[in-house]
Amino acid sequence: MIKPLLFLPGPMQIPDVVREAGNRPLFNHRSTEMVDLMASLESRCKPLFGTVADVIFLAASGSGAMESAVVNLTSPGDEIIVVVGGVFAFALPRIADYGAVWDVVKTLSWEWVIALVLAVFLNLATYGPPLVAALPGISYFRATRVTLASTALSSVAPGGAAVGMATTFAMLRAWGFEGRRAGLAVAVQSVWNQFVILGFPILAVAGLAAQGASNRTLELVAIIGLAAFAAIVVGFAIGLSSARLARRIGDRAARLASRAKALIHKAPVKWNGATFVRFRGEAIELIRRRWLSLTAATLAGHLTVFLVLVVSVRAVGVPRAEVTIVEAFAAWTLARILGSIPITPGGVGFVELGLTGVLVAFGANDADALAATLIYRFLTVVPTLVAGLIATATWKLGHRPATDRARS
């Protein structure tokens, strides 16, 4: 009889002596024989695991053991912190050894290091213009501070984009901007960002098709992005299409909000359908006057992030023959989609795994692809996080209220 030899993490190869033991007659699991057997197994497992504590046997997979630990340590409704380490400890090392990645990083020339630093500064410089376009009257310096702060908090706090939008609104209100105008700027800027994030994969698939290449994962993402893009466009258009519809939606939303506040013994909301009508009119006017500058600023902000990836890929020695600029763009669009999904803060773990995998699929060397990904992620996360946290801690310094004077 030929026995297959398995080289897998599981199922594992079973020795004949264990297989033969499984053919022995069963005995009651509450009998003294079972008690003696479990005691014997526990005493023999302690030196195996290097412990003097009790050894607990679970008739379940590793996931079952993890679930039992969580269930016994927490209660329903508890808030817990989940550290994303599996991707970095197990998944990425299967693509390339970290030692090989470090060897690639050490070969970076000072010219490429300077290019990377310049790309990072250029990226940071494009954080403010979208808000300047969406909120007439705010200075470039303040717009950059508030955007860096909101981006940093959305990267580390649960809730992601929602936390960032709330931070932006709170800072603008504290600086004296009218609540409706601040909310409009935040909403329009967020919608424009989603347009770009969801629209880029469509362009990437078209670019790959033009050069005779394809990627099924990216094609699926592009289809989903196209559907979401169309849904946002239609919803945005419907919301702005009719003052009557805006009033109806606003009145209904106000009633629901007031009922919810009544449950916690709070006063009803002060806004209503007329507020929505004014908001609609201001949105139409803002988009009519500022759509071009808002679009250009939003595109510049995203494309400078892509520039950091391109420089990272070329800096580690990935030539155009392995990964073209179109393929790099396609990989980056997938990473941006993964980063926008609120599974982990900033898509930590998922972005690294997805971006590295796509770069390897397009032809990059494993170690080079992982090195480029880690450099890109470090340079687009850490500087923004540091600058954003500084902005968050110092945003009240020297601020003057009642800055909401300039209207154009």
Describe, in plain words, how this protein is organized in 3D:
The protein is an all-alpha fold and 408 residues long. It has two domains: 39-69, no CATH class; 86-394, no CATH class. 71% of the residues lie in helices and 0% in strands. It is built from 16 helices and no strands. Residues 402-408 have low confidence and may be disordered.
Task: Give the helices and strands, then pairings.
Blueprint (H helix, E strand, L loop, with lengths): L15 H6 L10 H18 L12 H12 L12 H10 L2 H9 L3 H16 L3 H6 L5 H17 L4 H14 L4 H32 L5 H26 L1 H21 L9 H43 L9 H16 L9 H13 L3 H29 L14
SS-based class: mainly alpha
What proportion of the residues form beta strands (DSSP E)? under 5%
How big is the Rg? 28 Å
Give the mean pLDDT.
82
Helix content: over 70%
Major sheet: size, sense and barrel closure? none
In whole angstroms, the N-to-C terminal distance is 85 Å
Shape: globular
Total of DSSP H or I helical runs spanning 4+ residues? 16
Low-confidence stretches: 402-408
β-strand number = 0
What sequence of helices (H) and strands (E) makes up the elements? HHHHHHHHHHHHHHHH
Oligomeric state = single chain
What is the compact description of this entry?
This protein is mostly helical. It is 71% helix and 0% strand. It has helices spanning 16-21, 32-49, 62-73, 86-95, 98-106, 110-125, 129-134, 140-156, 161-174, 179-210, 216-241, 243-263, 273-315, 325-340, 350-362, 366-394.
Key traits:
408 residues; mainly alpha; 2 domains; 16 helices; 71% helix
